[in-house]
Specification:
The protein has 639 residues and is of the alpha+beta class. The protein has four domains: 112 residues, Jelly Rolls (Sandwich), CATH 2.60.120; 89 residues; 141 residues, no CATH class; 127 residues, no CATH class. It has five helices and 30 strands. A hairpin with an 8-residue loop joins strand 23 and strand 24. It comes from Agrocybe pediades.
Amino acid sequence: MTSPSHIFKASEHAIKSVTVFKSSKAEAVRVFTVPLKKGQNKVQITDLSSSIDTRSLRVSGLGGAARLFDVVCTLDSSALSAVAPSGQGDTSTEKLRTMYARRQALESEKQIREKETELLLKYGQTLSGEHVNPGQMSTFLDQYVTRGQKTLESITQLEEKIADIDQLIKSEEYKVSIRKGSANGRVDVVISADDDISVDLKLTYIVSNAEWKPVYELHASADNGKPSSSVSLHYRARISQETGEDWNNTSLTLSTIAAGTTAKSVPELKRRRILPKANQGYPTIPQQMSLQPGEFIVDMQLQPTQYLPQQQHHQRQLQYQQQQAAQQQQVAQQHQAFQQLQQQQPQNATLPAGPYGAYQAVAANSRTLSQKRQYNEDSLMEDDYDTLEIEQPSSITENKTIVSETPIAVSFSVHGESTIPSDGVEHQVSVAELPFAAKISYITVPRVDPRVFLQCEVTNSSEYRLLPGPVTVIFDDSYVSTSSIDKAISTGDSFECTLGDDPSTQVSYTRSSKTVKSNTGAFSENTNTTTYTTKISVHNKHQFPISRLIIREAVPVANDKRVRVILRKPEGLAEAKDGQVVNLKDNGLCVGWTKVVDGSGGTKEGKFEWTWNVNSGAKVMVEAEWDVKSTGDNEWIEG
């Protein structure tokens, strides 16, 4: 006796929940109510996504009275070959076929109604006064009008139904045309039940071709022309998928995990060793070769001899010993010559010390070597190394830092139920609306643009981690600009956005220069001194004071010894260090070098800024001055 079978079309059952990962994958959960009979039951589920990972399938929810015997997940090859070029599945084709059949039935019924009217008219034309008395004619006409009205009403209703189904057909054809992906996955499950029961079979699987990315809208407003200190950040996500399954009325979760289906294990830490950097005048040591401390590289080749005759073996061994003795003598002479050369060098020209002590002799001595020792590869395959390269010695070294951070997994639940069709189009859903406190600054860079810009520094005081993504800035319900969050913002961290320019604050920038040439004599070079002066004025035309005005300027830097830059104004800035603020004792006016961010800014690039509070209607001015001194007849310009 065969066990009963249950066949489910996945397209006819909504997906319960979907979790979208950052690795173009998603986890879908479906639930099917299955009535089980005592014994073995075969359950088949069709119309699943063709991008399903067949190894990720999980079946649960059977309870204690039923046991899972077998699970097989496959892609229906016959369905795959029958798929239309647009990628639509059998479900859409079946819907269209049903709609076309329904429309044809309505058209046939309409034709019958029209024939009924035509027959009634022809019958009336056959009546004459010779056969029908006036009373019968009157009765016939009444019946003709009544029947004709009913027929016309029926035809009108049929035409409306045909028009409605035409709209449905058009809509379904559009869905088919934009659908991406196909649904030819199939799951066969064998379940054994101890008794007749009903279970909620839970099907969980991973599909590809689904992704999401965060986007933001920053809403700010003004109170009597003054920007408010509170803003609202609309946290949203753009989701697109081409799995072949429509996510209709589904609970969505967005995860930052990069879900993978490949096996993972603890990484193996390999041995490390020091090698000369390639193309720097040092010989390259083969990766299979391991040098002992104090061992030098010599020119010799080891050849396998186990297959040679005994006499040839002794001859080859004798030649090898002679070559070894000669080459060791040559290396000793080279080493002695190098030591004599090193003793002749000044004491301050010694090689720099390495991280583990003095610079190894093998690195310095190896400049004179032109060939490498070659080892039998078969005897050295047991060693597996990573290579550390020795860079060419230099008098100035820079710190190099490699930073690697553990990725933090964060999940966001989208409120309510969402519908994301399989069309490859980005659909935007709301994650949260977060009220934040903001710090407003008025920033101007008049050398580049003589306008004052409103800079908003927002502190993340929510429980959400703000991922990198574009930010659309809306100020007083008007679009201002598009900015971005470049790195993840955790709780307590902050990011900056520009709220546009301030038309009520006027800035003027003037710059002048004066060059003085001096001739010190016939035996010395000429000296040119150019003094640059910049004056920046800011006029606050607001009805309120500007509490934080930042004016940015830059003094040129010189990398040539023939040119020297001397900063004279602002006073005290030349002696200040990065991060130090100089109080100019002028109604709170301060100056300092800009913050160094990712190696940019500060004294290294000559960028500095004034900070001032400007009263309503006040006009303030700052001044910078520096000298550029050069020798020779060359002319120097800023670039």
